[in-house]
Amino acid sequence: MNSPCDPSIPRSSFGWALEWQANEARRQQLAQLARDGAPAPAGGVHRWARGVLEQAWPVVHGTKPTQRELDAVQGVAAFDGGYGRGYTKKTELQGAHNWGAVQCCMPKNGECPGGSIKSSDYNAKTGKEYVVCFKAYPDDVAGAADVIRHLTTHRPKTWAAIKAGLPVQDWVRWMYVEHYFGGFKDPTTQGEQNVTDYAGAVWRQLQKIWAELGTSPSFERGTAAGGPLRPSVTPGSSPPSSAPPASSAGPSGAAAAGVVLALGLAGLALAGRR
Q: Fewer C-beta within 10 Å: the chain N or C terminus?
C-alpha cells in the first residue's frame, strides 16, 4: 500500500496528524523508557498482553477467539515487536504501539505520511537494508488488532493452519509463504531455515507465555530444518512425504538452532506486511 497510513481506526489524515503531534512528547518519553529499560506491566507482560488481545480480537472478528488463536498471535507479537515495547535497536518505533513491526508504505520525497514512522528493514534477496515507513497506532488495542488482522483475514492459509492446531513450524511456514516475514537468508536456497529461525523464536516466546498464564500448550514445536523451503502442510491432510514428521516435543522441547532475534529486539526482516 503506497498511500498515507491509516492506523486501522478510521479518521481523517489531518486529525490523525494532529493527534500524532500531540502525542509526540509521550512517544519520546516511551523511547527513553525503552533505552533505560521500560518496566513490565503489573502482573507480568504476557498476562497484560493477553488482556489486550482479548479486547482486540472482537474488534476485528466480532467473535471470541480460541486459545490457539490467541496463543499464535501472542507468540508472534511477543517476538516480532515485543508487544510494541521491544524496539531496543529501533527506538524511533517505541511508543508507536506497533505490535507486529507492520509496515505502511515507502517514504515519498524522503518523508513518511501521518500515522507512520520512518525506519529501516532488511531485504534478504538483495542483502541490503532499505528505508520504509512503519505504522503507528493510537493505542495498544489498535496495534494488536492489526496483527490479528494480518495473521487471520489477510493470511487465510496461516489462520487455517493455526485453527487446525498444526505445529508451530507448519503454520509459521504458511506465514512465510503468505509473505508475513522474509528472514535473513537466501530464500531460494535457505527458505526453510528462515522458517526455522522464526518458528524457533516464536516457540521460545510461547513457552514463556504458557508459563506465565499457567495454561497448557496449544501447539507442538514441529521439526526444525534447514535448506530450501519444504512443502506446506494443508490443514486436515497428512504431511507431504518430503516434509519431516511433526515433533511431539512439548514446551520443554529444544528450540530450533540458529534462532535470530526479532526486528524489535535486533532485526528480523519483513516481507510485504502492510
A: N
Which residue blocks in 137-215 are alpha helix, DSSP H? 140-151, 156-163, 168-177, 191-213
pTM of the model: 0.74
Own/partner contacts of 5-8, CB < 8 Å, gap of 24 or more, are 5/104, 5/105, 5/112, 5/113, 5/114, 5/115, 5/116, 5/133, 5/135, 5/136, 6/115, 7/115, 7/135, 7/136, 7/137, 7/138, 7/142, 7/146, 8/135, 8/137, 8/142, 8/145, 8/146, 8/149
Residue 245, C-alpha cell as written in the block: 514428521
C-alpha cell at 142: 489498535
Quickly tell me which residue has 526453510 as its cell: 192
Q: Which residue has the cell 511431539?
A: 248
| 11 phi/psi in degrees, rounded to 5 | -170, 160
- Residue 220 DSSP SS3: coil
88 closest CA partner among 32, 44, 142: 32
- How far apart are alpha carbons 199 and 215 in whole angstroms? 20
Identity at 101, one-letter amino acid code: A
| pLDDT band of 46, cuts 50, 70, 90 | very high
Query: Residue 111 has what DSSP assignment?
Result: B
